[in-house]
């Protein structure tokens, strides 16, 4: 394979690359020693390089010894054709550990490194103490999409050789811009990693998924090494479904889904680093619940400064809202049609119903504090039904919560989580449509409650 040029970097944070000869190849690496600490091996994603770990490097280096590697044929490491498959890359990783004298390091191995470390464990159980992987296709049957699917399914790579490699890489990296601005020097490094035909040659690795992943699949249930899978909900190339399928096949795994795209380690660097730290500090030793899944979502929180006094706003809310009738709800078990008719008559302003009031201000008197704060539990069972009939998980957030309180300087505020961001996590168009309607209902309800009677 082509030997990459070494670019001049203006800055790479605290990641300082070096080169070593391993298995006859010039391999780029970076390290941060820490005496007495566990070693973490960080393996480069594609089409990036080991500099992809720059946003999380200092956080991890504060507690662990780090060794980052550009895999053969990726980043700025030399490669050879026979290594361009997950199976043979897994064997190389075993040799890599021996070269550096590593005994059961942890591995952070996103993207193409994910199936490679799984193969290393299958070939030699105990190669790694734990695996922190994701954003790389690992399950079979293949679950891929976008450009990755096109590369894997293409009859040959000839069509890709005529394309502008820089444009392809930059287009893929553009996804990161909404979350994190890549330094120019890092972008230059990524482009150098793809130059002179190296990007197309690296495609042979993912094309080998068609033969290697069917061989890996039956071995996954026997891999007892702790595995944490981190996936981006909006990954255009490796859907969450791949991570979910892998999670089901592994006997000792945890799955976390972040609200971002493919490049989880850069797009959600702070969360990624936190998850990795918790895992490396000992979380890997705690066997998870069967099929446990952690999903990280972005919630839009509304804080609205009101004009009226606390007493006026809360009195208006309690007057505007309908009241729940438990007997009508109970009737659904024996006479659904009549129950629906009765529930339909309960709605107040914006067809919203009050389920409960929690007077947190009064509760705080138990600690000798005098405050004004009320939490309202509100919604409508029939509106909730419009969502739960499509996805039962919507019941987690129905009814809604609204807090009205007064600060020490007599300012009155209303706060709540935007329904569309709560329910939107379920990625169901019908549910989201109803939730967007709830956004508007809450907005109009608060406006009405904060408007003096003579202006209504």
Automatic annotation (TrEMBL):
Coiled-coil region list: none
Signal peptide: none
The keyword Ribonucleoprotein belongs to this UniProt entry's keyword annotation: no
One Pfam match: DUF302
GO CC terms, sorted: membrane
GO molecular function: hydrolase activity
Keyword Hydrolase attributed: yes
Domain DUF302, first and last residues per copy: 371-417
InterPro entries in the cross-refs: AB_hydrolase_fold, AB_hydrolase_sf, DUF302, TT1751-like_sf
Keyword list, A-Z: Hydrolase
The name this protein goes by in its record: DUF302 domain-containing protein
């Amino acid at each position: 394979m082509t030997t990459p040029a070494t670019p001049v970097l203006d800055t790479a944070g605290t990641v300082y690359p070096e080169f070593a000869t391993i298995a006859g190849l010039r391999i780029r690496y970076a390290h941060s020693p820490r005496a007495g600490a566990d070693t973490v091996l960080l393996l480069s994603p594609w089409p990036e390089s080991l500099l992809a770990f720059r946003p999380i490097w200092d956080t991890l280096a504060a507690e662990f010894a780090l060794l980052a590697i550009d895999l053969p044929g990726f980043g700025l490491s030399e490669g050879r054709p026979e290594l361009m498959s997950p199976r043979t890359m897994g064997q190389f990783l075993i040799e890599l550990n021996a070269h550096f004298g590593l005994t059961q390091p942890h591995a952070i191995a996103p993207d193409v490194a994910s199936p490679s470390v799984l193969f290393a464990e299958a070939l030699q159980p105990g190669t790694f103490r734990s695996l922190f992987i994701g954003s790389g296709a690992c399950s079979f049957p293949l679950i891929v999409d976008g450009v990755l699917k096109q590369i894997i399914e293409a009859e040959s790579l000839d069509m890709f050789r005529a394309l502008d490699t820089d444009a392809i890489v930059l287009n893929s990296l553009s996804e990161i811009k909404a979350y994190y601005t890549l330094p120019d020097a890092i972008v230059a490094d990524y482009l150098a990693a793809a130059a002179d035909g190296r990007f197309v040659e690296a495609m042979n690795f993912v094309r080998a998924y068609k033969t290697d992943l069917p061989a890996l699949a039956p071995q996954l249930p026997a891999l007892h090494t702790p595995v944490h899978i981190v996936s981006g909900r909006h990954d255009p190339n490796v859907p969450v479904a791949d991570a979910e399928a892998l999670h089901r096949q592994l006997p000792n795994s945890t799955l976390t889904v972040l609200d971002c795209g493919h490049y989880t380690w850069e797009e959600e660097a702070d969360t990624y680093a936190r998850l990795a730290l918790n895992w490396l500090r000992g979380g890997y030793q705690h066997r998870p619940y069967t099929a446990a899944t952690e999903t990280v979502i972005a919630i839009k929180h509304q804080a609205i400064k009101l004009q009226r006094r606390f007493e006026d706003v809360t009195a208006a809310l309690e007057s505007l809202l309908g009241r729940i009738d438990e007997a009508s709800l109970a009737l659904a078990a024996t006479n659904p049609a009549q129950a629906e008719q009765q529930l339909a008559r309960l709605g107040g302003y914006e067809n919203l119903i009050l389920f409960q009031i929690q007077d947190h201000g009064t509760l705080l008197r138990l600690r000798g504090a005098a405050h004004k704060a009320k939490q309202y539990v509100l919604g409508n069972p029939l509106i909730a039904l419009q969502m739960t009939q499509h996805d039962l998980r919507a019941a987690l957030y129905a009814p809604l919560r609204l807090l009205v309180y007064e600060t020490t300087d007599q300012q009155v505020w209303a706060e709540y989580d935007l329904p569309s961001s709560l329910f939107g996590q379920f990625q169901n168009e019908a549910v989201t449509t109803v939730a967007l309607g709830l956004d508007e209902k809450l907005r109009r309800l608060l406006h009405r409650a904060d408007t003096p009677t003579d202006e209504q």
